[in-house]
Amino acid sequence: MTETTRAGTTSSRVRPEILAYYGRGEEDGRLRSGAGLLEFWRTQDVLRRVLPAAPARVLDVGGGSGVHAEWLAGDGYRVELVDPVPLHVEQASELPGVTARLGDARSLDAADGSVDAVLLLGPLYHLPEREERLAALREARRVVRPGGAVVLATINRFAGLHDTIRQGVFFEGPERRALIEAAATDGVNRISERQMFTTAYFHQPEAVVEESTEAGLTVLGQYGVEGAAWLMPDCAENLADPERRGPLLAAVRRTESVPSLLGVSGHLLTVGTVN
């Protein structure tokens, strides 16, 4: 099958508004500067603690432009990245030590038990239907070896509510506020002309455990990525200050798995395995 055919098949399964959103090419820079560095550094911190040791084989599913694949390859991992966005695959293919190809989290072309770790650091955001998320989780379970790691990133249920209040846009009108409050109720982020994000699903932490367990994974732990620090108005400034950055990251790590604080974080990492 040619690359062109695979691209058409993969892209046709992804909602067009999601492809359009990521096709703008803005995701690569989001995690490389400003407050986005908190998500980047904290994800890196957790992954370095929970992944099998290098040179383990890591399948980075929905890995975008390779923001995390890049440093994983630098750490000595054998990294394969799969993403449904052609621009992302093109960007990731240019990274040293990273193999990138088009693909869909719900139907992976890797063999059973063929990788040491699977990263799903984006796909679950954009699968609003539960059965689609379960399909992606079951595929991750299928391709990882027994005892390997599956790491899932989800957006927390109230992330949109918290973020828009922090930025002040929550108060810009009843139409936008209604959409934000609807997402906080059922988890579905609906797009409109004024929405800053695309179609997405926002999880409750306990629901991630339920879905992972139903898909056959054994959950080992959950980690709030940004903690409460991302809601502070001076977050970016503190990250830019070398004297404050270390203490800030240490403070977030201190509270990362406190059950009562998991939902405060913008993103959540859930780590599972296959027995």
Automatic annotation (TrEMBL):
Q: Where is the Methyltransferase type domain?
A: 59-151
GO MF, one annotated term: 3-demethylubiquinol 3-O-methyltransferase activity
Which keywords does this chain's UniProt record carry?
A: Methyltransferase, S-adenosyl-L-methionine, Transferase
Entry EC no(s): 2.1.1.222, 2.1.1.64
Q: Which GO terms describe its biological process?
A: methylation
Q: Which InterPro entries match?
A: Methyltransf_11, SAM-dependent_MTases_sf
Q: Which domain of life is it from?
A: Bacteria
Q: What PANTHER family does the database record attribute to this sequence? A: METHYLTRANSFERASE, UBIQUINONE BIOSYNTHESIS O-METHYLTRANSFERASE, MITOCHONDRIAL
- Name used for this protein in its record: Class I SAM-dependent methyltransferase
Q: What is the lineage of its organism?
A: Bacteria, Bacillati, Actinomycetota, Actinomycetes, Kitasatosporales
